[in-house]
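Support request from a user on the community tier.

User writes: "When I paste my structure tokens into the form, the page sometimes reloads and wipes my input. The last time it worked, I copied everything first. Here is what I submitted, just in case something in the input itself triggers the reload:"
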């Protein structure tokens, strides 16, 4: 059984519910002692922009996206943000939340190549 887990999130502004659910699952995996990575791509890169994440609050029973992300990072979760997706949207590394790392697809492939299960939102 793999000790890692991957959640890919491709939505934020376009479908805030998927961004929220992705981080709910990521927190569950991290809480289950799985080394967990969230890979943000496409519209999902906006999750890593503080002003955009602050806008997402799906209401009860879910915590806000910002709170979910803060909890995930504090627990040691890794957030990788698709570099080409950032460039396409004019997002610079300095625009990202603390704890988010720009990365290309190779980082995702390497994580998955080691047998990590993955889910996508």
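"...and here is what came back when it finally went through:"
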């Amino acid at each position: 059984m793999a000790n890692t887990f991957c959640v890919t999130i491709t939505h934020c502004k376009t479908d805030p519910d998927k961004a929220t659910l992705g981080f709910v699952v990521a927190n569950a995996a991290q809480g289950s002692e799985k080394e967990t990575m969230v890979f943000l791509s496409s519209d999902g890169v906006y999750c890593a922009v503080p002003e955009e994440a602050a806008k997402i609050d799906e209401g009860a029973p879910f915590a806000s996206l910002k709170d979910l992300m803060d909890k995930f990072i504090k627990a040691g979760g890794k957030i990788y943000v698709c570099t080409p997706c950032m460039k396409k949207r004019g997002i610079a590394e300095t625009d990202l939340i603390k704890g988010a790392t720009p990365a290309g697809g190779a980082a995702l492939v390497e994580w998955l190549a080691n047998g990590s299960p993955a889910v996508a939102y």
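Agent notes: The reload is a front-end session timeout and is unrelated to the input. The domain at 4-120 is CATH 3.40.1260.10 (Hypothetical Protein Ychn; Chain: A,). The chain has one domain: 4-120. Escalated to web team.
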